[in-house]
Amino acid sequence: MDTSVNMKDYVDARDDAIESRLSTKLDKLPTRSTVWGAVATGVGLILAALAFGGDRFDGGVGAGGLLQDQAGKQAATDEAQDAKLELMNQKLDILIKQTADK
Checking phi first, is residue 43 left (phi over 0); if not, alpha (psi -120 to 50) or beta? Predict the structure, then answer.
């Protein structure tokens, strides 16, 4: 009895096995619709982030005038407080001088 395998049968069996493994691996790859769905999701996320950021930017621009008004009021309050502190420093200097003369 001959137990050797015909070379043609061996090559055909090997080719069938390789083709089967390749086919199995290709079936696991994502399809075009899956890839396009992922791209669309990514683009949607980017647009959502830009829309969110744009809304925040517009809000900041709208508040710019209000911030300038507040800064002006704060500057006036600071000047008045500086004047009061300067007057108090002058009075303290006078008291220190009078105390030192005694």
Answer: alpha
- Which structure tokens are listed for 73? 């009021």
Taking CA 9 as the corner, what is the angle to CA 7 and CA 10, rounded to the nearest 5 degrees?
65
Phi-psi sector, 37: left (phi>0), alpha (psi -120 to 50), beta: alpha
- Write down the domain spans for the chain: 65-102
- CA dist 79 to 19, 26, 40, 83, Å? 86, 77, 57, 6
Three-state SS string over the chain comes to: CCCCCCHHHHHHHHHHHHHHHHHHHHHHCCCHHHHHHHHHHHHHHHHHHHHHHHHHHHHHHHCHHHHHHHHHHHHHHHHHHHHHHHHHHHHHHHHHHHHHHC
**pTM of the shown model:** 0.36
Residue-wise pLDDT tens digits, 6-29: 888 888 888 888 888 888 887 777
